[in-house]
UniProtKB/TrEMBL annotation:
<keyword id="KW-0378">Hydrolase</keyword>
<dbReference type="InterPro" id="IPR029001">
    <property type="entry name" value="ITPase-like_fam"/>
</dbReference>
<dbReference type="GO" id="GO:0009117">
    <property type="term" value="P:nucleotide metabolic process"/>
</dbReference>
<dbReference type="GO" id="GO:0005737">
    <property type="term" value="C:cytoplasm"/>
</dbReference>
<dbReference type="InterPro" id="IPR003697">
    <property type="entry name" value="Maf-like"/>
</dbReference>
<dbReference type="GO" id="GO:0047429">
    <property type="term" value="F:nucleoside triphosphate diphosphatase activity"/>
</dbReference>
<feature type="active site" description="Proton acceptor">
    <location>
        <position position="79"/>
    </location>
</feature>
<keyword id="KW-0963">Cytoplasm</keyword>
<comment type="similarity">
    <text>Belongs to the Maf family.</text>
</comment>
<comment type="function">
    <text>Nucleoside triphosphate pyrophosphatase. May have a dual role in cell division arrest and in preventing the incorporation of modified nucleotides into cellular nucleic acids.</text>
</comment>
<dbReference type="Pfam" id="PF02545">
    <property type="entry name" value="Maf"/>
</dbReference>
<keyword id="KW-0546">Nucleotide metabolism</keyword>
<protein>
    <recommendedName>
        <fullName>Nucleoside triphosphate pyrophosphatase</fullName>
        <ecNumber>3.6.1.9</ecNumber>
    </recommendedName>
</protein>
């Protein structure tokens, strides 16, 4: 018997490969329809600058945007933001920007805020933000250059210029928080919601 009990597959409003892999590994039946929103404009309209609030806002905005195009479907939106003290980092646009971000983060602790929202027909059924704290080791400039050589453009696909599930793990001394939260999708509370709502067999 399939785990997903919904009449229609879950819809993931994200183009993130890792979020899709997480849902697939959990045995959920889903489709992918990335949200087409201007994230910076959404934040500006809502006057949001706090990283945690931004993760919540953007996850909801993505889910709402896709749900408006897919009546009756359960849509999952997700977003992740990175806070370093009072500063906030976004995905680097170039190798130089990735290098700059990693120089800022090395030897220090930063926070990842992973937000999700489940929406159907304009109604928010469930949402949350979970936070993890990660401490980078004080790696050398040589290692930094080698790391960016090894990762190439992949470093530009994630906030902070790293993927913990790959060679990015070599950047860190300590990780405090849920592994799925760090990957960008707080899976355990999401699955509990689905079970409690009879969307997943449990």
């Amino acid at each position: 018997m399939p785990l997903w009990l919904g009449q229609q597959p879950l819809v993931l409003a994200s183009k993130s490969d890792i979020r899709g892999k997480i849902l697939a590994a959990a045995g959920l039946r889903f489709g992918i329809r990335p949200a087409q929103i201007d994230e910076r404009a959404v934040e500006a309209d809502a006057k949001v600058s706090d990283a945690l609030a931004a993760a919540r806002l953007l996850a909801r905005a993505k889910a709402m945007a896709v749900a408006a195009q897919m009546p009756g479907h359960v849509v999952l939106g997700a977003d992740q933001t990175l806070a370093h003290g009072s500063a906030r980092l976004t995905k680097p646009a170039s190798r130089e920007e990735a290098s700059s971000q990693l120089r800022i983060l090395r030897g220090r602790t930063h926070e990842l805020h992973s937000g999700l929202a489940v929406v159907r027909d304009g109604e928010v059924l469930f949402e949350l933000v979970d936070t993890a704290r990660l401490t980078m080791r004080d790696f050398s400039d040589r290692f930094l250059d080698d790391y960016l050589d090894m990762t190439g453009d992949v470093a530009l696909t994630s906030v902070g210029a790293y993927q913990l599930e790959g060679i990015g793990i070599h950047l860190f001394d300590r990780v405090d928080g849920d592994y799925f939260t760090i990957l960008g999708l707080p899976l355990l509370p999401l699955l509990k919601f689905f079970r409690d709502s009879n969307m997943v067999d449990g």
